[in-house]
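Below is how a single chain appears once it has passed through the pipeline. First comes the sequence as given, then the structure the pipeline wrote out for it. We keep one example in the README because the format questions we get most often are answered faster by looking than by reading.
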Amino acid sequence: MSDRESGDEQHPAQRGQMVPQGEQELATKMLQIQSKRFYLDVKQNRRGRFIKVAEVGAAGRKSRLLLAMSTAAEFRDHLTSFSELYASLGPPNPDNLPEDGKLKSEVMVKDNRRYYLDLKENSRGRFLRVSQTIARGGPRSQIAIPAQGMIEFRDALTDLLEEFGTDDGEFKGELPEGQHMRVENKNFYFDIGQNSRGIYMRISEVKSNLRTAITIPEKSWSRFRDIFADYVDKMKELSEKSATGGK
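Resulting structure:
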């Protein structure tokens, strides 16, 4: 039985969180490590599966990270090496702290996200700081896991990955071939592609040496189709009325 089925945890809506439209929660785990609570939620949307990690401090302050399933597996492996180093360390010595506070560091990269893992030590103890940055000036977010809880955190991640796998769930089949049509002196090209944000259609209009294009996400295709079909029907009705003199 998954933690979600056991009834031990709250649904995000019960925790005061909004669940984005089109997003499905598959499982959740809650960890209490010292004065902090950590929620590990496996979610799925049109782009694939991922794990949202939320840290809730004693004062109710929340911090969140998003991990693709493959990144979560890499993070789990790093947690093992960080835990082994932590176990080999002696008691903290306030008089001999590292100059920058760092005992070990690693970096993970996934698409436009970069994650910095730093095992640190200060006057309050040892902890693993995980920072997430997004390319092109996106917001920076971070959580801090007490060092004593790294193994428990790793084991919780392992349970979720064993149940849901390490595949991000992105579309890996053959995409449809592009199509072309010519209308008078214009050429229109319809090309299907995929990037880190999902599948899309690019419609290009080429006239002489001028080229313009729009990109339509796959989730909007049905709506675009319905709008086009609506206009086709309306123009057909107008044409028929015009042909019969408006009768």
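The two ends are 67 Å apart (CA to CA).

See the next section for the split statistics.
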